[in-house]
Amino acid sequence: MARRTPxxxxxxxxxxxxxxxxxxxxxxxxxxxxxxxxxxxRLLAVIRAANAxxxxxxxxxxxxxxxxLLEVTFTVPDALRAMRALARRxxxxxxxxxVLSGDQARAALDAGAQFIVAPNFNPEVARAAxxxxxxxxxGAYTTTEIIAALDAGASVVKVYPVGVAGGPSYxxxxxxxxxxxxxxxxxxxxxxxxxxxxxxxxxxxxxGGSLADPKLAAASAFDEITRRARAFLDRVQAFRSPPxxxxxx
Length: 249
Description:
With 249 residues, this protein is an alpha/beta fold. The chain has helices at residues 15-27, 33-41, 52-64, 79-87, 102-110, 123-132, 143-151, 162-165, 168-175, 194-199, 214-218, 222-240; strands spanning 43-47, 69-73, 93-97, 115-117, 135-137, 139-140, 157-159, 183-185, 204-207.
């Protein structure tokens, strides 16, 4: 199956056909742009807000802080308007979150979403994302759910809610039998545990209230969102470039 252009929803294939193409793409090294960006930046910013205008302002604040991978959730009223606006902004890789149905997935893709994130696995959502050739990141909790999501064509699996599951130590346990599965930690992530999650083997970390807290957007505290974005990116950069140990004379 030829790779579709993100944002253009093609006619969907049977689940088996989509799965076969997803595996073929992985074998050929053809990964979605959003996944490449996630591997590069290691962070995914989740935007929840009381309305679309606040979501857009929060997105601008995140981008000012250096965040590139921005997820607008369908819990935002008029979320599609925010998605369409962000899809036109350079330097931002915009995706949709809390995608619970095939209709929502297709609407987000039509709005320009380059990735689809959900708290669960839904075959119809998977088919829509795979048909469009974008990063699909369903939520899973157990190893059985993670493997099922991967077999259905997930680009990366969101371990959610990872905070109540045990945090980084839970990821370490999962990595023992599943060392090669791309995992995104989400639900209970913060500045203190972002590096431990990466050390445990996550390809990236999803950041919600600890980054773009809806209360900050409601209070127009966008400078604080920008400050938090820079703090998270600095923490990841420090993880990637540990200080050199001076050699003894």
